Amino acid sequence: MKSLIILCGIILTIYVVYRVYKYQTLDDGLHKLIKNGAIILDVRTEKEFETGHIAGSQNISLGTIRERYTELDPNKIYITVCSHGLRSVKVENILKEKGFKKVHNGGAWSDLQKSLDLKISDEKK
After folding, report:
1. Per residue in 60-76, pLDDT tens?
2. Which of 14, 76, 77, 115 gets the most CB atoms within 10 Å of its CB?
3. What does the alpha-carbon distance between residue 66 and residue 1 come to, in Å, rounded to a whole number?
4. Which residues form the Rhodanese domain (predicted)?
């Protein structure tokens, strides 16, 4: 029981640190990267992608990225997204191992979508 409580505490701490990091350092930078042509790479399955995604995003799942990364241009900027942010971290690391230098984790696609919508509405004011 004590191990379970410790594990839950660690998971909660990691989640909180991720959310703080995301909101303080990534959101504004990702918006600028996307505005300048960065490609949003949605790494969920095709079925998940079909249920909703950011307009213009490209779908290559975590399960196929090791075979399909050659479809991507290593000179372009990619922002990886998934449903919660875990698979996007894995794909970010895989692409960096394959020599991609400009890969950023965008976390959950729905969070990034909300952030982009807010930036767009702020710019219209």
Report:
1. 999 999 999 999 999 99
2. 115
3. 38
4. 34-121
Alpha carbon distances (Å) from 56 to 4, 39, 41, 75, 80? 41, 8, 9, 19, 13
Q: Where does 27-124 sit in CATH, by number? A: 3.40.250.10
Helical ranges in the chain per DSSP H: 2-21, 27-35, 46-50, 65-68, 86-97, 109-124
Write down the residue that tokens 């960065």 correspond to.
Answer: 38
Give buried/exposed letters for 29-46 (b at 16+ CB in 10 A, else e): ebbebbeeebbbbbbbbe
90 SS3 class: helix
Least confident of 40-44, 58-62, 91-95, 121-125: 121-125
